[in-house]
Amino acid sequence: MGGAAWGPASRGRDQPDMPPSLLRVGRAWGRAGPRWTAGPRRRSSSSTFDVVVVGGGIVGLASARELILRHPSLKFSVLEKEQELACHQSGHNSGVVHSGIYYTPGSLKAKLCVQGAKLCYEYCDRKGIPYKQCGKLIVAVEQKEIPRLKALYERGLQNNVRDLKLIGAKEIQAKEPFCRGVMAIDSPYTGIVNYRQVALSFAEDFQEVGGTVLTDFEVTHMEMAKESPSESEEGIKYPVVIRNSKGQEIRCQHIVTCAGLYSDRLSEISGCSREPRIVPFRGDYLVLKPEKCYMVKGNIYPVPDPRFPFLGFHFTPRMDGSVWLGPNAVLAFKREGYKLYDFSARDFIDAVTYSGLWNLVCRNLSYGMSEMYRACFLSAQVKQLQKFIPEVTISDVLRGPAGVRAQALNREGNLVDDFVFDGGTGDIGSRVLHVRNAPSPAATSSLAIAKMIADEVEQRFGL
């Protein structure tokens, strides 16, 4: 995945008083050892912060950025377990800037997506981050799909999606000469961008106004300090201890978790409820061979079937000129397992012993079996693509990258479709805000989500 260079490191300042293994770096982020980065305008006193954001993906970074811009006098830190930021869902997604068509009118997903797309484009314009408004067609290939397509169009209008219109077969071919369909929703406001580049730009903004980013810091414990030195004002002011897998610790007043695939486990660590649970689904993509990319100009999506939980195979152009095809949706045997044979015993047992997964499987057994079949046989995936572009053949495609979706499920097996935020009770729980579910289109919505999270942090913690 593409990335972005980091902004200038601080100069002429003393190193923060941290364990020797925590290092401050400049523009480039290497791969050896943990990373400590501090903003150039404020010195951090020791390893204490007013608010710590756990999770260095696009939502966590956008939220940290929004908080420090609102409260520049406070000390903020972002903790990330990997050695680099935005490595997982933020760096393994389709790159689509969604316009907000699909989501239930009045839902947070609908509101935040429409707001977030506008904010995303404006931010990219300010920062010079390249994007393309290549548009999207949601294509009905059979007459029986037209009622669902029209209902989806009405939903998009209710959500105030910009510039939507219904078009017929001739207009479809005018926009996508190789695509066949009887009717389509044309969404010219839909675009594509490199979200990892956007996320790293958020991190740069955060650091430039004094925020601290600490990578290679996997949070394993959150607890109230058992004792404070009698003469230590910091021990009283920063009563929450966050410890990592290496035994290193920092202190803070409040915590915001934006942990994606690990949101349920971090909630459990803090003493809060583990429900809803995260069940990982891997999405495998195909890619068009470079000499065949001329067949696709913009995003081409199927009409979603409300009986099934995912959107189905689609054509997605990328900023680098490639075209991704897919994805499928199969249970991942590892929360960050991007390869077919990646396996974690803990993640696998967590998933298959959860009643919510089995309830979901029983309701969608035929769909799930079809997805598994297509995951194994390339010809089955190509057959889905040929419904839209008949000229695509098995010799035109290659197996491509994969992503893992953090799907929140309740015990009844219902997909938790909207954003979920909660805290807990007791000393720790009252000092934590958990972003429990930030589903697609979280990347598109990240700046809008950040505003909502910052509002909630201010209200809960009295910043």
What do these coordinates show?
This protein is α/β, with parallel strands linked by helices and 463 residues long. Helix content is 30%, strand content 24%. It contains 13 helices and 22 strands. The chain has helices spanning 58-70, 108-127, 146-158, 169-175, 195-208, 233-237, 263-269, 345-352, 355-363, 365-376, 378-386, 426-429, 442-461, and strands spanning 23-24, 35-38, 48-54, 76-79, 96-97, 131-132, 136-140, 165-168, 183-187, 191-193, 212-215, 219-224, 240-244, 249-257, 277-288, 299-302, 314-317, 323-326, 330-331, 397-409, 420-422, 432-437. The strands form four sheets. Strands 1, 2, 3, 4, 11, 12, 13, 14, 21 and 22 form a ten-stranded mixed beta sheet that branches. Strands 15, 17, 18, 19 and 20 form a five-stranded antiparallel beta sheet that branches. Helix 2 (108-127) packs across helix 13.
Topology:
Blueprint: E1 23-24, E2 35-38, E3 48-54, H1 58-70, E4 76-79, E5 96-97, H2 108-127, E6 131-132, E7 136-140, H3 146-158, E8 165-168, H4 169-175, E9 183-187, E10 191-193, H5 195-208, E11 212-215, E12 219-224, H6 233-237, E13 240-244, E14 249-257, H7 263-269, E15 277-288, E16 299-302, E17 314-317, E18 323-326, E19 330-331, H8 345-352, H9 355-363, H10 365-376, H11 378-386, E20 397-409, E21 420-422, H12 426-429, E22 432-437, H13 442-461
Parallel strand pairs: 1-2, 3-4, 3-14, 4-11, 7-16, 14-22
Antiparallel strand pairs: 2-11, 5-10, 6-10, 7-9, 8-9, 12-13, 13-14, 15-18, 15-19, 15-20, 17-18, 21-22
Helix pairs in contact: 1-5, 1-13, 2-13, 10-11
